[in-house]
Structure prediction request, 320 residues.
Amino acid sequence: MSYIAVDGLDKRFTVRKKREKGILREKTVIHALQDVSFAVERGELVGYIGPNGAGKSTTVKILSGILTPDGGDVTVGGRVPWKERREHVRHIGVVFGQRSQLWWDVPILDSYSLLKDIYRVPESDYQKRLAQLTEALQLGDFLRTPLRLLSLGQRMRAELCGSLLHGPELLFLDEPTIGLDAVSKLALRDFLKEENRRNGTTILLTTHDMEDIAALCPRVMVLGHGKKLYDGALPELLSRYDTQRILTVRYESGAALPELPEGCAVTQEAGDYKITYEPGKMPTAQLIATLQSAGTIRELTAQPQNIDHLIAAMYREMDL
Prediction:
C-alpha cells in the first residue's frame, strides 16, 4: 500500500448568504473536493498546485486530521488521519504560511521546549535535532528572540524548525515561501531538498510560487474546482502550454534585422532585438536561419516563457 492513499475524496461546505431584510438566509453548498484520488509513496516530494479556492488547503487539512471528509477513503502510513489523530500527528509536521504554531511573545527556544514536551521527544534526541536544524536553518542568532520581533523570513525558518523537531516522516507545506525575499527562498529550497534526501521525509508542497515547484518537485498534481486535473512531471505539463518563446539577438555593427514572418513581435533595447514568437508556427531553427541571413550575429539567446505565465495560460485553458 502507498504511504498516502486517497480514494474518491469528497468534501462539501455549506455557506450561508448574508441575511437581507424580509428574506430568509439562503444556504449554498460548495464542493471543495470532488472524487479526488491519488497515491504518494514514502520519500516523495510532490507539488500540489491550483488557483485560489481549488481545494488544496482542504486536502492538507484532511490529510493532517484537522477536517473530516464527507466521502472517500484516506490513509496515511496505514492510519486514518481524523480517526487516529493523536497517533497520526506524532508522525507529521505542518507549516501554514499564514499561521503560526509558535508562541508570539516568548523566545522561540521556549516554544521549541514546549513542543518537545508535547511530542514527548527524549531530551538527547531533542538536543541533537535542535542543533542540526539550528545550523541548517541558521537560527542561532535569534533562538532567544520572541517570535514577534523576527522578520518574515526568520519566522518562516523558525516555524519550519518547530515542525521538524520531532522528526516527522511526513511534512505538509502550505505556502511556506509566501512573502519571502529571493535569498530566503533559495535557502529554504536547499534545506527542503536536503531534508528529503538525508532523512527520506515525504513532502507535500502547496504553493503559488511555481519556481518553488520547479526547483523542488519532480512530480506535480493540479487541482481545479475541487477535481484533480493532472498528475505527472512538471516539464510535461508545461510543454503543453509552452506556446510562446523569446529570442534575443545582437548583430555586429551595421547589420539590420531582416523581415520576419507574420506573428513575430519585435522590440529593441540598447542594440538588442527581442523577438517573441510561437514555436508551433515558426520553428526556432527556421527563425535563427532567417536572422543569420541578415549578417553576423554577435549574441543570441533563446528562452521559454516564465513558468508563472505558462501556469496562468494553463489555468485559463482549463477554465479555472
Q: What stands out?
A: The chain has a mean pLDDT of 86. The chain is about 30% helix and 30% strand.
